[in-house]
Amino acid sequence: MLNKKIIAIFILQSFYCFSQNSIKDSIQLKEVVITITKIKDSLKNLPFSISSINYLKFQTTANQFHLSEYIEKIPGVFISNDNNFAQDARISIRGFGSRANFGIRGIKLIVDGVPETTPDGQTQLDNLNLEIIEKIELIRGVSSSFYGNSSAGVIKIKSISDFNNNFSKIGYSLGSNNQSKKQAIIGYKSNNTFYTFLLSESKSDGYREYSGFKNTNFNLRIKKKNSDDSQLGLNFNYVNSPYAYDSGGLTIEEVTQNRRQVRRRNLVYKTEESIVHYKLSADFKKQFSKRTSFSSYVFFSKRDFIGKIPVNNGGVINLDRKYWGIGASILLNNNIKTQIGFDIGNQSDLRKRYNNNEGLIGEQVLDQYEKFSNLGIYIINNYALKRLTFSSGFRYDINKVNLEDLFLADGNSSDKINLNSFNPSFGINYKIASRSRFFANISTGFETPTLNEFSSSPIGSGFNNTLKSQKSLNFEFGLSLYNSFNKVNIDVVYFNSSTKNEVLSYEDENFPNQIFYNNAGKSKRSGFEISSLIRINKSINIETSYSVGKYIFDDFIDKGNNYSGNKIPGVPNKILTLGLEYITKSELFINLNLKSIGNIYADNSNSVKISKSKTINFKIGKELKFNKIKINPFLTINNVFGNNYFDNIRINAFGGRHYEPAPKRIIFGGVKIIL
Q1: Radius of gyration for the chain, computed over Cα atoms and rounded to the nearest angstrom
Q2: Count of domains forming the chain
Q3: Threshold 0.90, pTM exceeds
Q4: Which tens digits make up the pLDDT trace of 430-471?
Q5: pLDDT tens readout for residues 626-649
Q6: Which CATH number belongs to the domain containing residue 416 in this structure?
Q7: What is the extent of the structural domain holding 145?
Q8: List of E strands, 561-665
Q9: Burial status of residue 486 (CB atoms within 10 A of its CB: 0-12, 13-18, 19 or more)
């Protein structure tokens, strides 16, 4: 009943009010400039579903533990698995990315102009510096013509690197389940060079038994303006997570008995992970003339991973991953804005597996060297004609996958696979008036299986070379109205995607507790997204988003079972967020946010349905000034009424172990001091 009332209020609000396409922590009515589409332009001119968010004020009261804090209010975005740090958060956009059993799949992440996503399409968030995020731009549609592999949605993050005055910021916060965060951030400016330094430690005992983690993060960013028309950026990131425990999936009977318990098998086999991650990157920009500019990046990353899963045979994984990339582009800013560029990525995984003798490392059973190389070449055009803007993009990607088997006791499983793809996109944007626009676009996308998914082979070694890349055709159209009545904006979008060879995860009864992957024939995704932001007065803002979608298997027969017409598991049919923000002249900040998640199916057969859930979060903060010192105490209460819901649903889990219960009420608070 409550959900229906909220939706009714939202619909009535939409008739009387208009909001903007970017969700913000404080309303901003000036022109929004976007860079995520490669060619910098006003949001009003671009024929895409884009959200742009600024976080400078938001950071003073943010918990800074989960990326979901930053993007969960964006329509079409669903985030789960926030509290299992051994598996990482799972992000899906319009249903893409829902198959991920750990980390992110199908979604591209760009940080300070450099890809965080590996060439094969994997993204981990444990080395993401939430504390220094300044801005996020997010494309909700398929964008392989811009970014190539695994770009069914794109998240671009900009860290703090420009500031007028030197600053020092220290913070300490703690809360339920012994959750704590310590941080120190320093910004130093010398002439035209900016230095941003971050050191932070996050840890928690976890809500469930055996679900704690610890993470130490160091980041140094240097930005040097060589002249008025060129700049160089350097970034070094180091992350050490000595432990992150995995309490595993439960049956519904076990949840009813004790939702905080660990799965016994996970405890026996000491299921956990530890990582050490390094990344060094550089980016360079040069303006040659008013009409010609150049930009480039280069990076190298190394990740050492040790993980244990709850099986004996091959249950200890030792992964030594190295990946690097380089890219460059030239922008010709004439009547037709044209950007021509390339991206090169190379990834090598040295994967070893050993028997897991109830937590002890046993005999080696696998040793293989996996490589994924990518070359992508693209051209993007924007052409403005009075009220019309036309956009087009073309990209061709050459992907090569190689496996060298170094463990020959069970035979030679070496293999090679080529996965090339051509992806165009076309869009048109029409300015109906100075404060409104209509846009439409059509695009294609592709997503290769990751090296981890290829290597998850039922035969135990080698590649599962029956896996194919999934390919998508997407179209969308939308209407945006900006700053109507000088108070409010609204954005309404319809999308429709069809996908061939959808990559899905499953568990096999012959190999329990292990994850494998296969392809569905065809699947479809369609739906509407509505977002709005209302400025009631100088102190009160109301922020809403509503997504409703239909995500189905159009043609899927697997092992004699016909799943055609079934809902794709792991994706909610509805997502509603409603936020109320109150800010006084004395810098008192209060935020109340409701999130409602619709029904989710846990398996391909749709025999297990997870009922809808609702949570309400509360936040309060205050800025206190003492001369030049700012003190920001804050308090958050997540899931205020302690409702039962699930943090993660393990898709197609064997034995009904789909459920990872979410925390009930979580209280967290602290103070951040800016000098």
Answers
A1: 24
A2: 1
A3: yes
A4: 999 888 899 999 999 999 998 888 887 665 566 888 889 999
A5: 988 999 999 999 999 999 999 999
A6: 2.40.170.20
A7: 2-674
A8: 561-562, 574-583, 588-597, 600-601, 609-610, 613-622, 624-626, 629-638, 646-649, 659-661
A9: exposed
